[in-house]
Amino acid sequence: MTLLRTINPATRWWHRIGIAPALVVGGLASCAATWPRTIERPPPQYEVPVSEIDPAHERAVPFDRLQLMCGTALGPLSRGRYWQGCYVPNADVSYIPSDWPSKRELEALRIHENGHRLGWRHGMTNADIARAIKEAWK
Description:
3 strands; disordered N terminus
């Protein structure tokens, strides 16, 4: 018996918000293929799988220390904002949080920061952003 048959149709919350049932039935394996909304996805030419990222260019630090390191290297953020991670070109190092609660978001963050290490910068055109969003939700 599948998960969809065992749950009362009235409680199928994923239908109300537009998530495909296959995503729910597939569990974590299917969710891992989606990109977190809170992290900008680099263009495909700068996206490298986590398994291919060189750990010599990454430093995992506690969240509080990350704020200090990134703020010192790249400048302060406006009030109410915080660094999720950063790439410091002068040191050729990405700082990522060692205590981030979501493994999926941490992997996306590592891919994002590695994209900066490979040459990608924020400030893409609207066409590039639209293309990246379309790719992210395939």
